[in-house]
Design brief:
By secondary structure, the chain is an alpha+beta fold. The chain contains 19 helices and eight strands. It has three domains: 136 residues, Glutaredoxin (3-Layer(aba) Sandwich); 89 residues; 62 residues, no CATH class. The protein is globular. The termini are far apart.
Length: 384
């Protein structure tokens, strides 16, 4: 009787597991802990990278992961974990794994070595198909080993770049792109394939190809036009400070050595608005540190710089830390004065209000938006 009972219990447990969705490990389980379990159970690791604000992440958790067919496929093969990539543990891991969009799903072997990844929400059948495809693809790990061992064969570099691009590993892709463009910094603009590699993959402002192009933009502009080249240079210079500001355990610190190198590079490139990138980095740091005395100080320095011009939408973004009408501070009062001055300049004709941002037409001109911001800071209800 005991044997029958045990058999029935085992059968019930098995059927229960098969009838449920993905059996994620308890909240707080780390990748290291998942790896230890995966080694013991001879399984792979499935990591769901999500954030609290991501709509598709919530849809996957609500509609796809609980499905019986999904659990039946995943549970026998994977130790599955979910991580908020903005949490104390998740944020450094997101940076290490180069997670830049959500949801991202990463497949690891039992030793926490990445096998493959894919992005975005989907229906159950498509999700299972993607997991199956990425869990069989070991080429990424093999290519990485060849790269680390010094293989620089041209065809290999092209294959590795394609693999990294498909996995959205932008930092590593930039390094491989640099290797492909090595020695071709002054000539790549004439080659369509190399132009595409530069435009799609170069993200490091210290790369030789980027420095040459920033100093000699006419070569590339002659091939693809002024605006794409100007936007590429701006994008690389604006995104690099993410590597200068280190966020860990709820704090933000400046990597002073990297910042000094960055400022020196801006000077070397002779960028007319070099102070924009320097001050924007310092303003962002002060905001993350919640040091609003310093925050206002750098905003004022920005506005007083004759080579710079913060548009109305930039001012509106700088107001964000003071958007709660219930809070009061000298810094909030200073920000309100800055807005009031801008509004006065627009109303007096000293400045023109903005009606568009890029190709998007605003619902109302920016003088009205600024007036609404001032009222909101005072706790007044906006008028229609």
């Amino acid at each position: 009787m005991k044997k029958i009972t045990l058999t029935l219990l085992t059968l019930v447990a098995t059927l229960t597991m098969m009838a449920q969705g993905i059996a994620f490990e308890p909240d707080g389980t780390t990748l290291e802990q998942a790896s230890e379990k995966a080694k013991k159970e001879n399984k792979l690791i499935f990591l769901d990278c999500y954030t609290s604000w991501c709509g598709p992440c919530k849809k996957m958790a609500r509609d796809v992961f609980p499905q019986e067919q999904v659990g039946a496929y995943m549970n026998p093969k994977f130790v599955s974990i979910q991580l908020d990539m903005e949490s104390e543990y998740g944020a450094p891991l997101a940076k290490k794994l180069q997670i830049q969009a959500y949801p991202t799903f990463v497949i690891f072997n039992a030793y926490a070595q990445e096998i493959g990844r894919f992005l975005g929400g989907s229906e159950a059948e498509e999700f299972i198909k993607s997991v199956e495809e990425k869990s069989k693809d070991n080429s990424s790990a093999e290519l990485q080993a060849r790269w680390q061992n010094g293989d620089r064969d041209p065809q290999f570099l092209q294959d590795y770049l394609a693999s990294l691009s498909a996995s959205y590993k932008n930092d590593e892709a930039s390094l491989v792109a640099e290797a492909i463009l090595e020695g071709k910094e002054s000539t790549f603009a004439a080659d369509e394939k190399l132009r595409m590699i530069f435009m799609r993959n170069i993200t490091n402002p210290f790369s030789k190809a980027f420095i040459y192009t920033a100093k000699n933009p006419a070569d590339l502009k002659a091939q693809i036009g002024d605006m794409p080249v100007e936007m590429k240079i701006k994008n690389v210079l604006e995104t690099y400070p993410r590597q200068i500001i280190d966020e860990h355990d709820g704090t933000a610190t400046l990597d002073q050595a990297k910042f000094d190198q960055y400022v020196a590079l801006l000077k070397e490139l002779n960028i007319p608005d070099a102070d924009h990138y320097r001050l924007s980095t310092l303003i962002t740091l002060a905001d993350k540190q919640k040091d609003y005395n310093t925050y206002i100080k750098y905003i004022k320095e920005y506005l007083s710089n004759k080579n710079l011009d913060a548009d109305d939408m930039q001012l509106a973004r700088w107001v964000k830390p003071f958007s709660d009408p219930a809070t009061s501070s000298p810094q909030k009062a200073e920000m309100k004065k800055i807005l009031q001055k801008r509004l006065k300049d627009i109303r007096s004709g000293k400045r023109e209000p903005m009606n568009t941002v890029g190709n998007m037409r605003l619902s109302r001109p920016t003088d009205q938006l600024i007036e609404m911001l001032i009222d909101a800071m005072d706790g007044k209800m906006p008028t229609q």
